[in-house]
Amino acid sequence: MDNTATFTAPEKRYFSTPEVISFLKEYAGLTFSKSTIFKMSMRQSIPAQKGPGGRLLFPVQEVKAWVDNGGKIETEG
Q1: Which residues constitute the domain of residue 52?
Q2: Which pLDDT belongs to residue 76?
Q3: In whole angstroms, how large is the CA radius of gyration of the chain?
Q4: How many domains does the chain divide into?
Q5: Which residues in the chain come in under a pLDDT of 70?
Q6: b/e map of 33-72 (b: 16 or more CB within 10 Å)?
Q7: What is the DSSP string of 21-41?
Q8: Residue 47 and residue 60: Cα distance in Å, rounded?
Q9: Is residue 45 part of a domain?
Q10: Is 5 within the bounds of a domain?
Q11: Is-contact 17 34, C-beta < 8 A?
């Protein structure tokens, strides 16, 4: 019996603020400062949610969809 198991890291579900800034630059060529990202999250113009300790978290799939949708947040309904 083969006891060697391969471990696959789970897919990343959330970006931190520095990670979302890097992602937006690499994925879409968009450059935002940390303060702009904070302001956008407060205005709910970028997908974000508060995590433990009030830390901002950016859902990876929602941010990708946001970029692909021209910076518009899709609402269900």
Answers
A1: 14-68
A2: 60
A3: 15
A4: 1
A5: 1-4, 9, 75-77
A6: eeeebeebbeeeebbbeeeeeeebbbbbebbeebeeeeee
A7: HHHHHHHH-----HHHHHHHH
A8: 9
A9: yes
A10: no
A11: yes
